[in-house]
Amino acid sequence: xxxxxxxxxxxxxxxxxxxxxxxxxxxxxxxxxxxxxxxxxxxxxxxxxxxxxxxxxxxxxxxxxxxxxxxxxxxxxxxxxxxxxxxxxxxxxxxxxxxxxxxxxxxxxxxxxxxxxxxxxxxxxxxxxxxxxxxxxxxxxxxxxxxxxxxxxxxxxxxxxxxxxxxxxxxxxxxxxxxxxxxxxxxxxxxxxxxxxxxxxxxxxxxxxxxxxxxxxxxxxxxxxxxxxxxxxxxxxxxxxxxxxxxxxxxxxxxxxxxxxxxxxxxxxxxxxxxxxxxxxxxxxxxxxxxxxxxxxxxxxxxxxxxxxxxxxxxxxxxxxxxxxxxxxxxxxxxxxxxxxxxxxxxxxxxxxxxxxxxxxxx
Length: 363
What we know:
The structure is a single chain. The protein is of the alpha+beta class. It is about 35% helix and about 25% strand. The chain has helices at about 1-15, 20-65, 70-85, 90-100, 130-140, 170-180, 275-280, 305-310, 345-355; strands at about 100-105, 110-115, 150, 160-165, 185-190, 200-205, 205-210, 215-220, 225-230, 235, 250-255, 260-265, 325-335, 335-340. The strands form three sheets. Strands 1, 2, 3, 4, 5, 6, 11, 12, 13 and 14 form a ten-stranded mixed sheet that branches. A two-stranded antiparallel sheet has the order 7-8. Helix 4 crosses helix 5 (about 130-140). It is globular and about 95 Å long.
């Protein structure tokens, strides 16, 4: 009791006793404790209810974000895959590229480039092919683990055959083959509309220009050497744009259905966005999913024909999520003997062909 009494005296020395005396003070303290405990329980219950409500809202949001339509879901999954490639560890990305290896010898390694992966780095780009080449070299079996070298490039949204060299000397030799147009490149593209004629060559120079609209931006565009005279309709040679680059693309219609076409394309020259510009502005057949070159004066999602939307089971409001359907299908490389390197189109490309009822030709 003495210890308890001493403890109470110590407590009273810290705080002056209330007028009601010791008994009243103890009762007040005990009552406040019960009230505080009850308040804490109520606060915890409220917090738990708020957490539960937040979880329900997040689940509802996820349900709303995941499309129920299979086509829209695949479009979303592809966009997510492209985003994930930018966020994964470089070792994981190198492993993805290794799995996509289609050919290798003592001089070169050929990969099937995934969709949405840039070749070079830049602002906002975390992962690119160039950065993981040393890691990829070490992962390849039965070969020297020397850094690999880029020989050419593909756009971020383009898939397909990409050649890497095992040495600087081999890379320089292959780059020279590209520069002197000794490499035969064959692309496949799904386009809107049919080209007329069904087979031919587009030979129109290309130049980069600023587009003045509600949001100014730069695009590659045609810089033709001829135009039709408004007076008599005759072909008139015009002054050449000195910034324009010569651009030549051979094309051939492989299949046609659902207001779309499967085209085989052979770029003879290598101007930036050449195939996309020649198809959109030269032939009036923009590539499916090419939102940049489906309009000239504005940045807007591609407008699709009703039959195309119906076959793809897609709403026009979701068309902006469609990926670019351009694939580097085959590359013929004269290295001693001529190597024919072929990559199958990605799964999303094949599914689109099937939905549009476009038959893949037999190679």
